[in-house]
Every structure is written in structure tokens, then in C-alpha cells.
Design goal:
By secondary structure, the protein is of the alpha/beta class. It is built from seven helices and twelve strands. Helices cover 28% and strands 24% of the residues. Helix 5 packs parallel to helix 7.
């Protein structure tokens, strides 16, 4: 089943095992949290949104105000199918936590490169992915996020983090952290920034440790842990 907009949605198994105790880490928020809102509304999950992008922080603030006032007005670039999908929902914002940090393979403070077009929301900690101007942001590994939040497991991990996904996942496996579901956009390969073939290697490693591919939609891949 597809949850979310054509742009920001993800496909999950029809029998996905999520409930009110489930923990979701959603890395890369941008200006489309239709997937996260639907997960919360449908399964009552605890959602941890992770993104240091200023536009993403503004959008989340606007989302909360929109549901409180029932006036869905946003300042950013909104997908045409966004409002029809999210307006009927009744998400519980007490179960959302926003963390204005980046995801990487270790704790650090890194340059967070903007795109040349200021209208675009996405930024990247990978040099050469976008433009030359940048903000400086703190980053943590997935394990360090879990320690910070007091979590011992993750039920679903979504990563749309503009090229940082490969090293973040490599460290996650080293740390023996295995979320039940993974929703990963492999931007390093999608944007032709993968001369070392790291994307193929991390996908093979995920399969080796017990994941299977549920769906591969142009390198937006949903995995499920099966062993």
C-alpha cells in the first residue's frame, strides 16, 4: 500500500506490523510529511522527525498550526495532491518529536550544502551534491539518536537524506541496529554521485543481514527484516 503523496509517499506491506507502541524515525522531512501524518493517524505511532533544514522546520510548525486552525496555508512549495491527502487526517501531535539535526555515521558538526535555487528545500552534507553555500549543522549516527532518545529499537526507519544514506546505513549495521522496516531513497546513486558503487554494496549488505526488498520504485526501496 502507498501512504502519502506521489512525491513524498512510501509503499509498505499490506500487513505491516505497526501500532501505538511503534517507534518511527523519519530522516529528511522537507515540505511533505504526508507519509508521517498517515502513519500516525492510521497506526498511532510515535514519530521522530529528523531534519536540520530551516524550510523543513518552518513547514512542521505550519502543519501544526494548520490542524489547530483547520486553515491549511503553507509558505513553501506544496505538492498538488498534498492537501487532499492530509486534510481529513487527525494526527496526534503529542506523539511527534522534531529533532533539528542531521543523520550521519558519527557525531560531528558538518557543512549542510544548499541548492542553487533557494526555492528548493533539500540540502545535503555530501560535498558536490548541490551548491557551494552551506549552513553548519550538528549530526548524529542512528545509534546516537537512539541513545539520546532512550530507545532500544526502531520499528520503521525512513531515510531521504540526500546522499548521506549509505554511510549512515553502514554504521547502523556495524552497530547491529535492525529496524523492522526501512524506507530508503538512495540519492547517492540517483544523483550520479556514486563512483565507488557504494549503493549497490550497501543494498547487498542489507540483504545479507536479513532484509528483503518489498518494493523498489526507482531506488526508493522499502525493505522488511525477515530473519
Amino acid at each position: 500500500m502507498k501512504l502519502g503523496t506521489n512525491y513524498g509517499g512510501w509503499e509498505l506491506p499490506n500487513d505491516v506490523r505497526l501500532d501505538s507502541q511503534s517507534i518511527v524515525y523519519s530522516g529528511g522531512v522537507g515540505e511533505d510529511i504526508s507519509f508521517d501524518l498517515l502513519l500516525q493517524d492510521k497506526y498511532d505511532c510515535q514519530i521522530f522527525l529528523i531534519d536540520p533544514t530551516k524550510k523543513a522546520i518552518t513547514h512542521f510548525d505550519e502543519i501544526k498550526k494548520a490542524y489547530a486552525s483547520q486553515q491549511f496555508l503553507f509558505s513553501g512549495s506544496i505538492q498538488p495532491d498534498y492537501l487532499p491527502i492530509i486534510q481529513p487526517l487527525r494526527p496526534n501531535f503529542d506523539k511527534f518529536t522534531y529533532l533539528p539535526l542531521g543523520i550521519w555515521h558519527k557525531k560531528d558538526v558538518l557543512s549542510f550544502y544548499r541548492q542553487d535555487n533557494n526555492e528548493y528545500v533539500s540540502q545535503s552534507i555530501i560535498p558536490g551534491m548541490f551548491g557551494a553555500t552551506y549552513d553548519t549543522v550538528p549530526v548524529l549516527s542512528i545509534k546516537e539518536f537512539m541513545t539520546k532518545l532512550g530507545h532500544t529499537h526502531i520499528d520503521l526507519l525512513k531515510l531521504d537524506i540526500e546522499g548521506a544514506e549509505v554511510q549512515s546505513l553502514q554504521q547502523m549495521i556495524i552497530d547491529k541496529i535492525y529496524p523492522t522496516y526501512l524506507c530508503i531513497e538512495f540519492d547517492l546513486l540517483l544523483k550520479n554521485k556514486d563512483p565507488k558503487d557504494e549503493t549497490r554494496q550497501i543494498i547487498q549488505r542489507l540483504l545479507h543481514v536479513g532484509y528483503q526488498i518489498v518494493v523498489n520504485n526507482h531506488l526508493n526501496i522499502t525493505f522488511q527484516l525477515v530473519k
